[in-house]
Specification:
14 strands, 12 helices, 380 residues, binds nicotinamide-adenine-dinucleotide, 4-stranded mixed β-sheet, alpha/beta, 7-stranded parallel β-sheet, single chain, Rossmann fold, binds 2'deoxy-thymidine-5'-diphospho-alpha-D-glucose
């Protein structure tokens, strides 16, 4: 196990957990950020959501159908390994919802959808979203995240779609030394093919505002967690492995810091940007909860009543960003949004969801997942 920052080494073994001072605060929230009160129920707002069968996209689709009487949703999703229509069972029969199976890189399909559906707003989630996969296989990441975003932007321009919201990530700012945190003007410094593809697509989206005066907004969120999270990412992987008493692979020294944002808070933040954000602007969306990975895993083990000896250090991720940190002051100041879920409550609810849904976990962990697990963790 490595002892110095930046020298993770290749050795594996048990995890030694130091005392960790961490920041994890909540804001006092005075306003319901997702309340639909300002909408006229007789006027429809049509959302074209891309990637709505994934973790965050499906939460967004469920949330807008639940909170906005005026909403209609068309969901365009390729159903890659990460797309799962089971995530949408609760709203599948809603007459305001329609699913379209397709690839955002398919320019004719995308043009046809913009022409025929004439959405009021495009909310673009679809992406290859996993950093480790982007390291093993960068091709699909560039295709979907960059070329796919271009396909959507250009079709939206051709058919004069009034609003385009691009969902992005705090990873575009790269690793940030404490105590600094990124605001929206912070320089971009990407480490992985995933973060580079997201940074490129952010700039492309903003160029459509500058050049074509399209009403584009971009949001950059921190690490999401919550129900329906594919178990290749830290929190759902650790919960599902721990429930089966399997080893919990900690990359390097486990002291990398991420800011944790409950998925429904993220979706409320996106709604706030769509409702009140200014065209051509970027908005950070953070959880105000910065924790080192080992602390997150330790809390999961505590909730599940499992021993910390399940944690095992494995070889670090290449190019692993040490610390993400961002401020959401702009979004909070302009819209009144703030994260509402405390991390301990959100984590407890998430663990409970995984305990109550073993069939969902078993189904998504079969097939393709097994191959990825083998590639990513074997000989590590
Ligand atoms: P996810 O991997 O769970 O879901 C991605 C969805 O996109 C899947 O339903 C998949 O089938 C679909 N998709 C992939 N390629 C497609 C294509 N070519 N055409 C159509 N659909 C395609 O991802 P997520 O974690 O829900 O992330 C959603 C968005 O939010 C991404 O843009 C990601 O960069 C961003 N984001 C994620 C996080 C996070 O912590 N997960 C944080 C900040 C930003
Ligand atoms: O910051 C926002 C980003 O958060 C999003 O843009 C990405 O789509 C999303 O996948 C997430 O990226 P991360 O790389 O931060 O998430 P991941 O869950 O893969 O890893 C979180 C941290 O946990 C990271 O420091 C790597 C570490 N890790 C991850 C896995 C899967 C481990 O130590 N062991 C693991 O097995």
């Amino acid at each position: 196990m490595a002892t110095d920052e930046g020298d993770e080494g290749d050795k594996t073994g048990p995890v030694l957990i130091p005392f960790i001072p961490f920041i994890c605060g909540q804001f006092l929230v005075t306003e319901q950020p997702c309340a639909a009160s300002r909408y006229d129920e007789n006027v429809t707002m049509k959302f074209l959501v891309t990637g709505g069968a994934g973790f965050i996209g499906s939460a967004f689709v469920r949330q807008i159908l639940a909170t906005r009487a005026d909403a209609e949703v068309v969901n365009l999703d390729k159903l890659t390994y990460a797309g799962n229509l089971e995530n949408l069972t609760s709203i599948a029969a809603d007459s305001r919802y329609r699913f379209v199976h397709g690839d955002i890189c398919d320019r004719e399909l995308v043009r046809g959808l913009m022409r025929d559906e004439r959405p009021d707003v495009v909310v673009h989630f679809a992406a290859e979203s996993h950093v480790d996969r982007s390291i093993h296989s960068p091709g699909p990441v560039i295709d979907t995240n960059f070329v796919g975003t271009f396909s959507l932007l250009d079709a939206a321009r051709e058919f004069s779609i009034p609003r385009f919201h691009h969902v992005s990530t705090d990873e575009v700012y790269g690793s940030i030394d404490a105590p600094h945190e990124a605001d929206e003007n912070f320089p971009l410094k990407t480490a992985s093919p995933y973060s580079a593809s997201k940074a490129g697509s952010d700039l492309l989206a903003l160029s459509y505002f500058t050049t074509y005066k399209m009403a584009v907004t971009v949001s950059r969120a921190s690490n999401n967690y919550g129900p329906f999270h594919f178990p290749e990412k830290l929190i759902p992987l650790m919960i599902s492995n721990a429930m089966e008493d399997k080893p919990l692979p900690i990359y390097g020294d486990g002291m990398q810091i991420r800011d944790w944002l409950y998925v429904d808070d993220h979706c409320c933040g996106i709604q706030a940007v769509i409702d009140k954000g200014r065209a051509g602007e970027i908005y950070n969306i953070g959880g105000n909860c910065s924790l080192p990975n080992v602390e997150v895993v330790r809390r999961i083990l505590k909730i599940l009543g499992k021993p910390e000896s399940l944690m095992k250090t494995v070889t670090d991720r290449p190019g692993h960003d040490r610390r993400y940190a961002l401020t959401s002051a702009k979004l909070m100041g302009e819209t009144g949004w703030a994260p509402r879920m405390t991390f301990d409550q959100g984590l407890a609810e998430t663990v409970e969801w995984y305990k109550r849904n073993p069939e969902w976990v078993a189904r998504v962990r079969s097939g393709e997942y097994r191959k990825f697990y083998e590639t990513n963790y074997a000989n590590r």
